[in-house]
Design a protein that fits this description.
Helices cover about 55% and strands about 5% of the residues. The protein has three helices and two strands, in the order E-E-H-H-H.
């Protein structure tokens, strides 16, 4: 016997009490403020590869919306996890640019670098929270007898 449970409105999923749209807007504002403080324009950003090897590769067998047998909540959480991973990559690029940039004083450099490190810490926390929520959703599906492919 198979049972599938879904959320009627995927937009109702919250992370840390905040909607995905709110988190995305706050994240974008923080990144823009950091770029403005550093004097970096999108066109001026250096191309720096950061992160684990192979994270940017997409498996051809993975679908855009996730596995067919995943619930709506799982698909939303997987998408959010991908967005957070991309955000982390961008912040790591910003950090590398901030560390390489010249500043009028050592304190200015420390302030800029620490601001970006704080953003990275917040993004890492959001990734962990989203991964935990995804794990709980997968566990719910597994408890009902459904088989969920967790390779992403």
């Amino acid at each position: 016997m198979s049972l599938s449970v879904g959320i009627s409105s995927a937009a109702g999923v919250t992370i840390g009490g905040k909607s995905a749209a709110t988190i995305r807007a706050l994240s974008d504002e923080t990144a823009d403020a950091a770029n403005q403080a550093l004097g970096i324009k999108d066109s001026d950003a250096k191309q720096v590869r950061t992160g684990a090897v192979g994270l940017d590769k997409v498996d051809a067998s993975t679908e855009k919306d996730g596995p067919d047998n995943a619930s709506v909540a799982e698909k939303v959480l997987l998408e959010r996890l991908k967005e957070l991973q991309e955000q982390l990559r961008e912040q790591q690029k910003q950090l590398a640019a901030a560390q390489a940039a010249s500043y009028p004083t050592p304190e200015a450099k420390t302030t800029a670098v620490m601001a970006i490190q704080g953003q990275i810490a917040n993004t890492n926390a959001a990734i962990m929270e989203t991964a935990n929520s995804l794990y709980k959703e997968i566990a719910k599906g597994s408890a009902s007898g459904a088989v969920v492919n967790t390779t992403a």
